[in-house]
Design goal:
By secondary structure, the chain is α/β, with parallel strands linked by helices. Helix content is 35%, strand content 23%. The chain folds into 3 domains: 2-89, NAD(P)-binding Rossmann-like Domain (Rossmann fold, 3-Layer(aba) Sandwich); 95-301, 3-Layer(aba) Sandwich (UDP-N-acetylmuramoyl-L-alanine:D-glutamate ligase); 310-441, Mur ligase, C-terminal domain (Protein-Tyrosine Phosphatase, Chain A). Helix 4 links the parallel strand 4 and strand 5 (88-89). It is globular, with a radius of gyration of 22 Å.
Length: 443
């Protein structure tokens, strides 16, 4: 069996290692450059590869193809493979049959990384032998090749879910859905929503779907679709006999006739959106029969995710917060919503068709100054120019942070929450966040 892998990154190389171990004839092809550390792994494992090209003779003879999530279906080589009816799968689909571990799959437009990390933290703290993968950390396929985990917590992007056929998690979570990546879905929101719901398409009556019952797109989907999975909703406003909710500053969860309650003030994560992430993760812990005392302890000591509302430093009583992972308006909405002090907001980058008006009420209420950090800031200036007292444009992180220091006073917060992708001035959102943290430390 010939396995061809498009893309020589984390998921590609992980799949190559698993494929070789399972007796496939493996070939890795990357249209760009393959990073040195991955090249080394391929050479050590005697896996053949090419970079900066796709040689059709070596690809179109595949029995099965694993495509990295970053490669769109519209790319010429993928079109040719599909025309020849060669199966093109995601890493998740390829790898899943090679493990009988319990799989917890988490998707959503925002909050999925925090929910994934928190769920993993809850299970690991309870002594479970659990792996963490998917869209973060080490590739799922690679872990199956190297380790014997009893369960996996996987963060799944819509791109990864697009490439599944039979994959099914025992427990699925949809944190929320808001317009993102619409360029990959013919600019049709419903296509993107359907893509997220693929996470539950193969689930049976034995499986569980945990979802945000306050989310408009999710509620709409349920009006015209069904899933066989047992539903566990969570909400900030509604209460359930089966599900999770917040009432009188308490998180209350009822699953399979078992109750769990905890005061929200003891939960380490702050902000309404994080209460939702905590409800989702705790629902998983309850389904996995983790002891209540362990859940409480884990929720109170969880450190959060880097670049997601990460407190950097307090300087002259001004709190600097790195939320570089906010690459869309919805993520920034959550960030601004959780601000309790006058805020100097650093925003901007590559706009994916943002509607900034959604942030208007929060900006009026909380933001005293805006610093635009991007190559093209016209849209942001048009929307908020008359709303805040100060609006400044900069083209590098050091200037952004120095300017923020000048505009802030005791008791304020400086928030980097760009609502945009980072590729105009930075390598990626991590690079942007790290530059922010360094610039703050240099003040």
């Amino acid at each position: 069996m010939r396995l061809v892998i498009l893309g020589g990154g984390e998921s590609g190389v992980g799949t190559a290692i698993l494929g070789k171990k399972k007796g496939y004839d493996v070939f890795v092809s990357d249209f760009g450059k393959i990073k040195g550390n991955y090249k080394e792994v391929l050479i050590i494992n005697e896996i053949s590869w090419e970079e900066e090209k796709h040689t059709e003779d070596l690809i179109l003879n595949a029995d099965v193809v694993m495509k990295s999530p970053g490669i769109p279906d519209k790319s010429p080589i993928v079109k040719k493979l599909l025309a020849k009816e060669i199966p093109v799968l995601s890493e998740i689909e390829f790898a899943a049959p090679f493990t009988d571990a319990t799989i917890i799959g988490i998707t959503g437009s925002n909050g999925k990384t925090t929910t994934t990390m928190l769920t993993h933290h809850l299970l690991k703290s309870a002594g479970l032998n659990v792996g963490l993968g998917g869209n973060i950390g080490k590739s799922f396929a690679w872990q199956i090749a190297d380790n014997k985990y009893d369960s996996y917590v996987l963060e799944l992007s819509s791109f990864q879910l697009d490439g599944i056929v039979n994959f099914k998690p025992h427990i699925a979570i949809i944190t929320n859905i808001s317009p993102d990546h619409l360029d990959r879905y013919d600019y049709k929101y419903e296509n993107y929503i359907d893509s997220k719901f693929r996470i539950t398409m193969n689930q049976t009556e034995e499986d569980y779907l945990i979802y945000d019952a306050d989310d408009e797109a999710i509620s709409e989907w349920f009006k015209t679709h069904t899933t066989k999975a047992k539903l566990i909703p969570f909400s900030l406003t509604k209460t359930f006999s089966e599900g999770a909710y917040i009432k009188n500053n308490k998180m209350e969860i009822s699953i399979n006739q078992e109750e769990f309650t905890m005061d929200t003030e003891h939960i380490a994560l702050e902000g309404k959106h994080n209460m939702k992430n905590a409800m989702a993760a705790t629902s998983v812990a309850k389904l996995m029969q983790i002891r209540k005392s362990t859940i409480r302890e884990s929720l109170s000591n969880f450190q959060g995710v880097e670049h997601r509302l990460e407190k950097v430093l307090k300087i002259q009583n001004v709190q600097y917060i790195n939320d570089s992972k906010a690459t869309n308006v919805n993520a920034t909405f959550f960030a601004l919503d959780s601000m309790n002090t006058p805020t100097v907001w650093i925003v901007g980058g590559v706009d994916k068709g943002n509607d900034y008006n959604e942030l208007m009420s929060l900006v009026r209420e909380k933001v005293k100054a805006i610093i635009c950090l991007g190559v093209d800031n016209k849209k942001i200036i048009d929307v908020f120019g008359n709303v805040v007292d100060m609006m400044i444009e900069v083209d590098n992180m050091n200037d952004a942070v120095r300017m923020a220091q000048r505009l802030s006073e005791k008791g304020d917060t400086v928030l980097l929450s760009p609502a945009c992708a980072s590729f105009d001035l930075f390598e990626n959102y991590e690079d942007r966040g790290n530059q922010f943290k360094q610039a703050v430390k240099n003040l």
